[in-house]
């Protein structure tokens, strides 16, 4: 489950590899809030609709933008049609 939304296409891998994702860059180059977001996104512990449903906070787990049921972190960050449009 962790970081499933980070799957890259083969043609994007070379461009992504050039980006510096070292711990020094992450910890010193990001604000505290952004660093928390990145870490929680990588571990799929953000309060996405499916996580809120799994944690018993909401019963439906719908996307607040497009109303898709069981919206995952992948849907929220990269797949919601409302966001892409």
Layout of SSEs?
Elements: H1 10-17, H2 23-29, H3 32-42, H4 49-54, H5 73-79, H6 81-84
Sheet having the most strands: none
- Give the helix proportion (percent range): 40-55%
Task: Determine the structural class based on helices, strands and strand pairing.
Answer: mainly alpha
The sequence of SSEs as H and E is HHHHHH
What count of helical segments does DSSP give?
6
Oligomer: single chain
Proportion in β-strands: under 5%
Short description:
The protein has 6 helices and no strands. The chain has helices spanning about 10-15, 25-30, 30-40, 50-55, 75-80, 80-85.
What does this molecule look like?
- This protein has six helices and no strands.
- 51% of the residues lie in helices and 0% in strands.
- By secondary structure, it is mostly helical.
- The two termini are 26 Å apart.
- It is globular, with a radius of gyration of 15 Å.
Question: What labels would you give this structure?
Answer:
6 helices, mainly alpha, 0% strand
């Amino acid at each position: 489950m962790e970081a499933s939304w980070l799957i890259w296409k083969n043609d994007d891998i070379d461009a992504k590899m050039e980006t510096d994702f070292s711990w020094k860059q992450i910890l010193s180059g990001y604000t505290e809030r952004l660093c928390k977001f990145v870490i929680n996104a990588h571990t799929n512990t953000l309060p996405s609709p499916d996580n809120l449903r799994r944690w018993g906070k909401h019963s439906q787990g719908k996307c607040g933008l497009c109303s898709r049921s069981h919206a995952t972190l992948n849907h929220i960050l990269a797949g919601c049609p409302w966001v892409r449009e």
